[in-house]
Structures are given as structure tokens and as C-alpha cells.
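Reopening this one. Same input as before:
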Amino acid sequence: SSFTDLPETAHSPPALAGTARRGLQATPLRPPSACCVMAGAYGNLGHGRADYSNADIYREMQRSGFQQGSNVVSQMSPTSQVDYSAYSRGAAVDVYGWQQQQQQQKATGVSMAEASTQFAASNPQQYSTGMCSAAAAAATAPPAVRTIPIRKQYVPIVKNGSTVAYKTAYFGNVYVGSPEPQAFSVVFDTGSGHLILPSSGCESETCTKHRRYKRGSSSSAVDIEYDGRLITDLSKPRDQLRISFGTGEVSGEFVQDRICLTQSATDCSSVRVVLATAMTPDPFGLFDFDGVLGLGTTALTLNDHFSFFGQMVKQNPTMHPRFAVYLADSDEGQSAISFGGHEEPCAASEVRWAPVAMPELGYWQVQIKSVRMGGKVLDECEDGGCRAILDTGTSLVGVPRAVSRAMHRRLARPVPEALAAAGADVDCRTVAGSALEFDLGSVVVTLGQEDYSRPKPYNMTVPGQASAWRLWCRSLLLPVDMKEPLGPRVFIWGEPVLRKYYTIYDWDAKQVGFSVAGESPTISGDGQSGSPAIGAPPAGSLAAGAPLSGGGGTGGAGGGGGLRGSAAAATTSSP
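Same output, byte for byte:
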């Protein structure tokens, strides 16, 4: 059974103290009438809301467009006023008495919030004017985009001594804990929801192959149950979670810790983590990545405290609630994931948006109006009832099992006789074929033969001609059979689609942006970018999943290798 519907507990680990509302009474804020910018920014934002967090205020200021209106600060609860005042002062530390407040705090020994209240009472004009200008400056400043390089790995599938296909995965680093953050390589997976890391308590061969999280090395770590309750007696049985993926499974316990995108302390958030005590050899023992960072929405997690990006946006109010994925079309290009927006050079065309279908399920899923192959409509999707899930943890294009045979048949084509007679190895990704089009209404996602074809042609007999044969090119599509509530008419868009299109994921608006993929991002000073692919196939390989010579796609990977995770069960170990 799943615990995704269970209510949140009232308990908060100490690590969350900095993000919880502070229970202090504040001197009522009295911005002067000249503070029209802040008053305008807050016009029409109240609507009966009595409580605002830093992130809520910041995003609402940006969205309001500075329209004239009433001052919503006066509508806040006293604790939110303290939150807001601390935020707005922090946005302009060198102008509005922030240093004076620090000095007062050090001299008196009171908390920073109390020092802020005292400063506001004794310097009302400076305090109020400062808040107005700081809020305006923060609202108009462009939010920072954090772009993390990700690296590709190939894992060969060998049968009878020959490599017949390659599985692939993309992963990059995150940093966990303090004071010395522990680095882990993770798959940034839009098809699952949790951050999963191997625990130092896992002694299996699969776990020991990877870097394992050391709970004792992090002063910011808090042992918790799945609902956030603090664990005071580690000798007692703990809650366990089992997460099933398309090709594997993980079981684990829970901890709360600080997760950072870089080694800087400016892009961190406090998140609940699944510490794996067991991991299946496939896929976790095959690849070099240590864990999985789920980027599906909160519906795929036990509760929203496990959602890495949800907590990142909530705890970092200046971060734009979007992330974007760029997969390079060759092993020489730089793949990356960006948080807080997207990299403009990566988009070679206008970004067009499609709303998330059935957002309550947690997947980045879009509605398909129709599917066309060579201009001919696929009957099974003609009514607009098909959907597609964008899944960065899957290396193929998955198609509903019920239509897979028809799609394979319509995308097959013979190798031209002149090309076959030349005797050279034929790569079907260079043999002209029908375009595979997915019409979303606002945008048409198009795959060419270089994206969906098996590289190696097959000998097939010619009907009605004894001993006659001909080379044919076939598609590399993975039949999938999704159960309800997703249903049997769901496509999975993995690596072939994500190489062709730069995709942007809007967390708040629940929509996905598509642009034809442009230039690779330039990432400097990270120490990770520019790394070559791991285990790259030899040049000219025709194994499924091998890159097309000269770039332009790989056609996916053999056997899928996708993660496609979801919370399967969370059960307590106690009697």
C-alpha cells in the first residue's frame, strides 16, 4: 500500500527550524505612503490569505507586475511579518541597517528576529523605506539559474560473446550533509519522486560498489520515520520504504539532511532522503551512478518533504520554479540540467508549452491529440486519448503494447537495393523513413528515422519468392503496458525525444515547455563538465544504443534500462 495520502505530522526535526515560521510577535510594519512600489506589488494578492511565506511573497511580487493596490503586509499574521521583514532586509544588506541589527544582536544576545523588531521600533522610517526598496530590487532582479553538468554512461548487453545492445544513463553530482558535504552521483529522474542514496549500513556488493551516505559524518542529519517523527531510539525497528522501478527495486530508511546542487552553501535545501539498505543489481550494480534524484511532482512521493525540487523552490524564494533538461546529440557535447530556469542558448526555437495531463498522478505527462507516421494517423490515438510521460530515466521510446505491432509495421522500410548491393555495413538510421509525429496541439514533437531506428538491418524473406531475401530496417520501440490509473494508452518519452528537444518543467504552472535543442551549455568552474562518456562504444558500432557516427542521435538503448520509479509500499518494521 502507498502512504502518499497520509496527513503530515506536526513534528518538525531541528534541521527544519530555519525554514519553519518563527513564533515571535513583531512590531506592526508601517511602510510610508511613498512606498508605492511595495504597495503596488502587493495589490490584489491578499484574497483572504492570512499567512505568507518568504517564497510565496517573492513569487507573488514577481507575478503581480507592480500593479497599484493595497499594502498586503498589514494583512499578514505577526509571524509572517517577521518572516517577511527578515527576507526583505536580507535582500539589501548594505543599505537598510542590517549591519546595525547584527551589532545589536551581538551586543544584546537576542535572536536576529528580535533584533529586527527592536530596530524597526527605534528606526521606523529607515526600516520601512528599506523594506520597500529591498523588495522592489529583489523582485526585479533576474533569478539565478544553476546548471549542473551530467555525464552519459553506456553499459553493454552481451549475448554469446557479442555486444548486441547498450543501456545508457545520464547522471551528475549533488552534495549532501555538513560541515563537509558528501558528493554523490545521481540520475536526475523525472519519472520518480524520491532522493535515494546507498546507506553505509548496506553491505551488499551492489551498495559497496558506490559511495555510501555516512550518517555519522553529517551534523545536519536527523533520523526520522517516513512522516517526519524524530527517532530517539535507534535500536528499535524503523519504518521501511520499498520503491519499484522498471528494472529494479530499492528498500530503505529515512533521514533528513541538507542537499546542495554545488559545494556552495547558497543552493541548498533541507530534504527527506531514502537511505537504501538494499538495491537490486540491475540496474544499480551495472552503472556508476550512486543513487537517484526524483524530479516527479509531489504526488510521486510519500509527502512533499521528500520532493527535492519542491523543497528547493519553497526554501529558496529567489529560485524560479522551473528546471530544464538538455541531452547532447553526441558524446562530444555537454549534457546538463538547469534549476531555477533554463539556458537560452540550449533553445533553438521558441519554447511552446503543453499542460501536464492528470497532474494528480505526479508524472510530467502530456496529452497527445494525434499520432502520425508518414502523415497517416494512428487510429488508436485519433480520439485524443493517448498521453506521453517525459522520463529522463528511460533510454528508449516506449509505446503502448496494443499499438506496438502496428507502429513497427508502418515504420519498417526496405534498404534500397543499390545500398544493399554495395556490401558495406548499412546503418538504418541513415536510411530514409517516415516521420513519427506526436501532435500536442501547441507543438508537434517529431522523430526522424535517426531517432527511432534499430541501427542494424535484418534479413527478411520476400513473400512468394522461394529463397529470396531482402534487407529491412525496423524501429526500436519498447512495448509498455501501463496499468490504471495511467492506463494502457501511455507512451514513454525517453532519451530519443529528450535529445531532440530541450524540455523545461514548470513546477508551479504544471506545464512542460518544448524547444528544438540548440547549443550545449557552457559550464565553467565546476570541475565536472567536459568529461567524456563512460564506456562509449567503438566507432561504427551497429549495436542498439550505440551513437550514430558524426552525431545526430543514438536511437535509444537496448532492453530499456529505464528507472520509471514510483512509491510501491512503505511499511513499518515494528510489530
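So the earlier flakiness isn't reproducible anymore. For the record, Residues 124-140 form the longest helix (17 residues).
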